[in-house]
Amino acid sequence: MKVYVTDEKELIMEPSVKWAGNPNITVAVKAFGLKATVQVVDLQVFALPRITLKPLVPSFPCFASIYVSLMEKPHVDFGLKLVGADLMSIPGLYRFVQELIKTQVANMYLWPKTLEVPIIDPSKAMKRPVGILTAKVLRAMKLKKKDLLGASDPYVKLKLTEDKLPSKKTTVKHKNLNPEWNEEFNLVVKDPESQALEVIVYDWEQVGKHEKMGMNVIPLKELTPDEPKDFTLELLKNMDANDARNEKSRGQIVVELTYKPFKEEDIPKGFEETQTVEKAPEGTPAGGGLLVIIVHEAQDLEGKHHTNPQVRLIFRAEEKKTKHVKKNRDPRWEEEFSFMVDEPPTNERLHVEVVSTSARSILHPKESLGYVDISLADVVSNKRINEKYHLIDSKNGRIQIELQWRTS
């Protein structure tokens, strides 16, 4: 693969793509009023595409569009069979069909022609944060029963529109149709005139998909800066004003919102500035630093006998643990740990394991919900990484870990 670096905000790659297989493809062919079923066999494709990611932006996935062009005509090789007979044995047919396909594909995407795949709106992706929205989920009333036993296990997801970041989630209130949370979250605002806060209530399920109980949205332009405002929202099926299902009562939710715009001197000047990391405290060994681990949250955890997740961090034989979260497949910890290191851990790994314990289960008091070993080379070179990792030995489990390397 060739990779080009230019003065533009773009990344250009030219991989050599070779694919061969024996697919089971049948094609319906119509000609001169006749129909026939043709089988494609021994398909091979060799191509040299140019893939350009641009413009590069500070929002995930870090590029706004994908542009694909072919640097030369692709090589396509295949066989065609009709009722067991090899059609490619007909004199001149094979070369005619192959050249026809090459020409047709080349006419569409041969450089400088391109196939553009838009990913995100670059104008929105380049916007810088202008303030913080503090959302406090207070309580819900008169929620509807979802479980067979006549109760529900509600929790709330909060997300700003036009934002690619993961949703904020409250804890789960088991068997409660009038839950109280009083939980507070901060969300970064980029455009208070166009963004809105989505509030969605779900019914937690230990096995299977969590069912949506209702939702509503609050446009941020309804807020007065620096003034808290309470909202009592009717829960709806969706935001389609013409949907008759929204006439059904689904309960209410109460939230308190405060929008605090940044002062001019507080507005980040660029993406790099948002990635700055605190310095290590005084007394840090010369040449060493402080390895900081922030355990944010996990999703889709599932134990065989119980799901009371806790995270174990093991680094250089030293172990640290988060608190237990009872009966929760999507726990949030937001706990920070640190290890003083006398030299950069460039060639070392951090072992992260999610475990579940239960005093009620005599035969299975403890079980692993998955683990991951994280190489620390990236955090030493980049100073900070914040990623979601798929857990090994877990069906769908993921964990979000932030790592920081602080030096004096």
Automatic annotation (TrEMBL):
Spell out the family assignment given in the record's similarity comment: Belongs to the synaptotagmin family.
Q: Which PROSITE patterns match?
A: C2, SMP
UniProt-annotated location(s):
Membrane
Q: How does it sit in the membrane?
A: Single-pass membrane protein
User: Where does it sit, as one GO cellular component term?
Assistant: endoplasmic reticulum
Q: What is this protein called?
A: Synaptotagmin-2-like isoform X1
Q: Does the keyword Chloroplast apply?
A: no
Start and end of every SMP-LTD domain? 1-120
Species name for this entry?
Senna tora
Lineage start: Eukaryota, Viridiplantae, Streptophyta, Embryophyta, Tracheophyta
